[in-house]
Amino acid sequence: MFFGLVFLSFQSYGQDQQEKKVIQLSGIILNADSTDAVPGVNIYVPKKGRGTVSGRFGYFSMPVLEGDSVVFTFIGLKKQSFKIPEKVENDRISLILTMEVDEIALAEIEVMPYPTEEEFKKAVIAMNVVDPMSISRANMSPEMLLRWAESMPASGGENFRYFQEGQMIQNQDLYGPRPLRILDPFAWSQFIRSIKRGDLKSK
């Protein structure tokens, strides 16, 4: 009798499942305070192992059975559910679902680096504070500035100037060898005038 009852219960359950019609549920999910679509919403039927996710434009489509309860969840939005009617004439249901923002107010939490206020005071009193002016003087020393200047990359203006100088040297090399200043008579005349003026005398 026990096995007979179990067999009849399974048979009646299978008949109920067979009698339920498959419905194609589809729709668009929007934000309640605007007309923006909500992508990535989890849409599933609990305890049935069926589900999907809304696409880029908030659209979704999935098969369900009559009487199923479909749940819509998304982080930061309130969870919603939709009950499929028991008797549906058509084999399709279309939805336009709006989801509201789920505001959660958390209690204030005071984070302390020490378990008690007394230990915090002792740590502050025992702290060795470095003078900020000494740090700034060390960073502005000539040796430190020279080291930074040597390791600093060239600016955009310097790179452009070096490029222009290279282009000019290449253009000069195209039309012959470079002139030697030691053989330039105008350079020698300027050098003699500077000697007569006493520009080379040590002051």
From TrEMBL:
Pfam family, one: CarbopepD_reg_2
InterPro entries (alphabetical): CarboxyPept-like_regulatory (IPR008969)
Keywords from the UniProt entry: Carboxypeptidase, Hydrolase, Protease
Name under which the protein is recorded: Carboxypeptidase-like regulatory domain-containing protein
GO molecular function: carboxypeptidase activity
